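Look over this today:
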Amino acid sequence: MKTNRIHLFSLAMAFLLCLSSNNVNAQSKSYDTYANVEFKMPKVNEPVIPDNTVNLKDFGAVNGGYVLNTKAFADAIEALSKKGGGKLIISPGIWLTGPIILKSNIELHAQTGALIKFSTAKTLYPIIETSFEGLNTWRCISPIYGKNLENVAFTGNGVWDGSGEAWRQVKKSKLTDEQWKKFVASGGVLNEKKDSWYPSEQYMKGAKGADQNVRHDLKTKEDFEAIHDFLRPVLVSIQNSKRVMFDGPVFQNSPAWNLHPLLIEDLIVRNVTVRNPWFSQNGDGLDVESCKNVIIENSSFDVGDDAICIKSGKDKDGRDRGVACENIIVKNNIVYHGHGGVTVGSEMSGGVKNLHVSNCTFMGTDVGLRFKSTRGRGGVVEDIFISDVFMTDIPSQAISFDLYYGGKSIAETLAEGGNTVTTKLVPVNEETPQFKNISIKNITIKGAQQAVFLQGLPEMNLENIEISNLIAKSKKGFSIIDANGIKINNVQLDIEAKNAFEMYNVQNLSLKKAEFNPGSSNTITIDGSTTKNIDLSGLSKTTTIGKDVHKKAVKF
């Protein structure tokens, strides 16, 4: 009888598992990437890859991680290209290689168990004219590089590793003692204070005078050659192409940014894992720059800088290019670490428009939703729709709009006393950035230094931002500075600070259905001579109004 019961239980469990599996498959089949997108979103076309297949091993590739397989990759891609394209299968194993140059109509399929490890020999990576940090410059060619292509795909569940540890500067303060000893023992050089490790003397020389890793003072190729080691490439650089897809693999340990699609029409990034050490400088996850018709979904990021970044060039170079990043869906992604979960800017000089973000989770990112720019950029960021975002343990601001971004992480900015109020006006011109028409709703924040920080420019306020259905447990509530047309509806704040809302030079703001700590003695402060039309109807909380605010500026 006991045996029969166990057998029946096993059958029942198997039946339940089968039902569960069918439900998951049904959900997967019914999942609609384009559902509930607020703007007219064109269908993103996948790459079309011819039905030809070759295996890397057939071109003399040697497993083990000690034989350079650069020629095997080049020969396999060339053989497929001569057939009109097809799939290159990379079998399980460790495949050491130099740069891989992509061609049209090629799918690189790294099977489970395949590890493609890029060589640390920097002489294999010649410098080329390219774009980095939104500027036209010279950098070492990327480990994976392609330009002017059509139909490119990365599939399978293998791993692409950029060997970034050989390229990056590392600060002692960011490592354990054992990690630091390992770096020092590996070679390279230390600075005078012995608190920063550089891969080489040439790198340390190149770092002096650099602005966000770009040397503006150098003009010729020969100038840049002299600091070759400093010119860290992104792991994957695909430029000016159509129908590009990343579906399945792991991309990790990049010299600089991980994935950098630039000027791509029809881009799909899904089911990927993007990883970098948390201390990796400029270790971004995905930087989508001046791309059109983009899907980013069902992926995870654990990186050393911003995770999912939307960009469009920097300052004059970006304005001259004049190509916006537009029609973008970001759905069902997880960010475990990064400076920002989803970030717009700071390189947004060509503009960003039509961005949908939903059902994303950020755990321990420096900032959750991060919008940043500064005077000199120009560009317009507009028609942004964000919903159903869940954040935990955010060490700074869960939602941040910072128009005084200075090239530093938010933690560094706060530590140096940044994000301060300023009243200085400058003339509006093509260098003035603008952020407007942004909807943020259904947000849950469990632990943050501040729930919401909104800071525009005196000469160009943040405009038409709506925040609704927000639940936040944080040290501070809202700071709103130089903003116009702000609507806040149905927010619940559990905060430690005395003030729940701080407003300075804010116009046309409405605050409705707001709940905050009942013990707060001074929950709303309003100041600034340009403040007007503040609607606090229905709120009975204590409000302090500064002496520079017009008597009729606030309505209760």
Observations:
- The radius of gyration is 25 Å.
